[in-house]
Give the backbone structure.
Amino acid sequence: MIALLQRVAWAKVMLGQETVGEIEKGLLVFLGIEKTDREEQVPELMDRLTRLRIFEDAAGKMNRNVRETSGAVLIVSQFTLAADLSRGLRPSFDTAAPPDRAQPIYRLAVETLRNLGIPTATGRFGARMEVSLCNDGPVTFILKG
């Protein structure tokens, strides 16, 4: 699993004119699921994601996590994170999990975040979405699990 994390002042996902997911301060998480990923990996990755000290404290140092800041998470499935760009000019998606394997893992990630007490919004799995955000920093990390 590949999680691209962006610390945001706000973020939202739209399908046409409909807002399907929206948060204020917190993390926008793009989640790419690969063929070799297993559901057993999800709890540890989501727990770690919520404990990462990537929010500033009163001294301006990255020393607080999303839980401590009362932040939220907007999690969006993004199979393109699993692309192989090592050859040629066209991405290969051979390593990406097919939708029937990826969707249960994505749903488990959402459920895990909610069970951890994190306010969690989502995109719509498999849909072509428009994602808008205000990156806070900018601060962006890649977390692999």
In short: Strands lie at 2-15, 18-23, 26-32, 55-56, 62-64, 72-77, 120-122, 130-144. The chain has one domain: 2-137. The helical segments are 42-51, 99-115.
